[in-house]
Write a structure and sequence with these properties.
This protein is of the alpha+beta class. Helix content is 26%, strand content 34%. The strands form two sheets. Strands 1-2-3-4 form a four-stranded mixed sheet, covered by helices on one side.
Length: 128
């Protein structure tokens, strides 16, 4: 199953990426997601991957998408920190800047404090 922030963002992304707005579509190859499982607020990172013929959207276009996703999640899943990235060979844009990760917080039996770790975008994370 998908984590709730990812599942809640899919209808909006489908609408925005198939609509008349061309700012995000040209050369888009795929979307990648990272979301936190534990902790508050939840965190969601959406990365748009572009091929060699694509043009990476401006930070302004990514900010508009980020705000739309934030509003969608607020109305369906509650508060979530949203990061939107776009990536193509040699180019990476991130809104907000420098936040290409999600922070995870899990409760582990036998520990007084929750286990905290960072999942950087593009790094392997094993959900098992």
């Amino acid at each position: 199953t998908l984590l709730p922030p990812i599942a809640a963002s899919l209808p909006l992304l489908a609408e925005l990426l198939s609509g008349e707005s061309r700012a995000l579509q040209a050369g888009l190859r795929c979307l990648k997601f990272h979301a936190s499982f534990g902790g508050e607020p939840r965190q969601l990172l959406v990365c748009l991957i572009y091929g060699p013929d694509g043009e990476v959207p401006t930070e302004e276009a990514l900010a508009v998408l980020r705000e739309a996703l934030h509003a969608q999640l607020a109305s369906t899943e509650g508060t979530a920190e949203v990061t939107v990235m776009a990536q193509a060979r040699g180019v990476q844009r991130c809104v907000p800047g420098g936040r290409d990760f999600v922070d995870e917080r899990l409760t582990v039996a036998g520990r007084d404090a929750p286990l905290r770790y960072r999942q950087p975008f593009g790094q392997f994370s094993n959900p098992n």
